[in-house]
Amino acid sequence: MDYLWVLVAFVFGFGVKQLGMPPLVGYLIAGFGLNALGVQPADSLDALAELGITLMLFTIGLKLDVRALVRKEVLVTSLGHTLIWVVVGTALLSLLVVSGIGAFAGLTLQAQLLVLFALSFSSTVCVVKMLEEASELKTRHGKTALGILVLQDIIAVAFLVVSMGKIPSLWAFGLLGLWAARPLLFRLLNRAGHDELLPLVGFFLALGGAELFSLVNIKGDLGALVAGMLIASHAKSAELYKALMGFKDLFLIGFFLTIGFTAVPTLDMTLTALALLPLLALKFVLFFVLLNWLGMSGRSSYLTSLALTNFSEFGLIVAHLGAEHQWLPESWLVIIALVMSFSFVLSSFGYRRAHRIYAGYKHWINRFERPEAHQGVALPAGADVLIVGMGRVGKGAYMALEKELGGRVFGIESDPERALALRGEGLNVMAGDSDDLEFWEQVCKGHIELVMLALPSQIEMRSTLEMLGLAGYRGKVAAVARYEDERKELLRLGVDVAFNYYSEVGSGFAAECGHLLPVPSFQSV
User: Cα–Cα distances in Å, from 516 out to 276, 504, 519, 521, 522?
Assistant: First the structure.
């Protein structure tokens, strides 16, 4: 039966990917399809789902800056959005209750408040996958979205404590001592090396943190998040993050499948879920207004809000708890599972087109920002080569070209902290997003002759090339690719030179070593 889940998940995930949709849409369809066929889930599927969530929160912790949680755009937006959402949403939901349509008929005020509270949260799983796909976890809007998600998780834990009467034990205060264990954890990471022990250390810390928090009656997922945050500043945290990515994504397939096993939906439940979908517009507007009011730029506010415009898996926990205590009819557990699944599909589609939409409506979107909030990148005079993405590949290209061109080489990095660190090393680097149309419009006003794309994601490459075209860039473009099919795709999209850097490493290595051989011998080779 385990093979059946793998087979069906692969078939549907592969099928929707060929249609240009995210594979998670296929996994959701697979779960509901298996449930409709009468397939019963085993405990192993739930265990995979829980492990996927635990690893995801641990990897979020590896990328999270604790200071981001107390920034006004995170703290005020999280609390303000939840309060306004419940009040305004309940007023809108009451109109449907009064109408007596379908499952809305007879819904008590207590049940309405519970439904709106369940739908107030955004999906950590969905948002993180979208941001990872676009390589935007380190951008300003990515960090803001992650901070809001973490605070929502804390609000969720507080709700569970109050509603279930599960008060943390006195031993929970001992968790404050985890900070003192950081030097020991750092030594453990240093000695783990770079092979299979490194991801195993990640599992140990993620599961250990979850288990430790569970022992003192605190939601275990929060422990995995804290464990990641404890070692986020370590030099190997990025390497550990990459080592766990494949495991996390694989186990999260179990999570998407389990959503479909909630129950078999009826037509009435499906129509009720569809009637709730327009609330997504309210969620987006509230986030957008609050973030603009708090001083974020129109673009950052728009991207953050769009990423958070979905319903959370936490809604299932709230609905299940409400049904157990008879606060909510059991049918609403299925309805919330459906509306959450629908929101995942819409959110995944919408965010893949986020930068294209902004390019078309940027003047209207930016009307709502404060005058001092607008962000821009001013390129220095004399810059001829622009390297986009200052990771290992981009930085290596920068250092090589700087020897020849000096100050005519310029770098752009989406992570503001990394950009600051590189400037500290004396590199000519500024923070900016590669898929920002306004940035490329500014580039076109200068004399950039060559743009070199050293971005980690093929999706981000496509988006950047699209923005270059919309901005009217006429210079040369070079890019790197991980695989041969990606390299060919970049060439089809108009890149002048595309390097498969796995194969180019070998050529570069040979060129660097050529002088070690006698000239005749080397030439004969």
Answer: 70, 20, 9, 10, 9
Q: What CATH number has the domain bearing residue 323?
A: 1.20.1530.20
- Identify whether residues 351 and 225 lie together within a single domain: yes
Amino acid (1-letter code) at residue 442: Q
Structurally, the chain folds into a number of domains equal to 2
Q: Are residues 69 and 193 in the same domain?
A: yes
In angstroms, the first-to-last Cα distance of the chain is 55
Cα 475–Cα 476–Cα 481 angle in degrees, nearest 5:
140
Distance between CA atoms of residues 32 and 79, nearest Å: 34
CA distance 66 to 154: 14
Confidence at residue 106, expressed as pLDDT on a 0 to 100 scale: 78
Residues 338 and 478 in one domain: no
Please name the helix (run of DSSP H) or strand (run of DSSP E) that holds residue 162, with its range, or none: helix 140-164
Phi, psi of 127 (to 5 degrees): -65, -45
Per-residue pLDDT of 100-112, as tens digits, reads 777 887 788 888 8
Give the CA radius of gyration of the chain.
25
Polymer length of the chain: 525
What is the distance between the alpha carbons of residues 350 and 366, in angstroms, rounded to a whole number?
19
The CA distance from 506 to 200, in Å, is: 30
| Cβ-based neighbours of 221, under 8 Å, separated by 6 or more | 53, 54, 57, 153, 210
DSSP 123: P
Q: What is the pLDDT of residues 76-92, one digit of tens each?
A: 999 999 999 988 988 88
Least confident of 172-176, 237-241, 249-253, 498-502: 498-502
Residues 6+ apart with CB under 8 A from 502: 482, 483
Strand partners, 151: none
d(CA 214, CA 220): 5
Q: Which residue range is the domain that position 248 belongs to?
A: 2-368
- DSSP secondary-structure letter at 165? T
291 vs 328: which has the higher pLDDT: 291
Name the domain boundary from 308, 336, 368.
Answer: 368
Of residues 361, 388, 381, the one with CA closest to residue 464: 388
Tokens of 242: 């990459």
User: Which residue among 368, 396, 411 closes a domain?
Assistant: 368
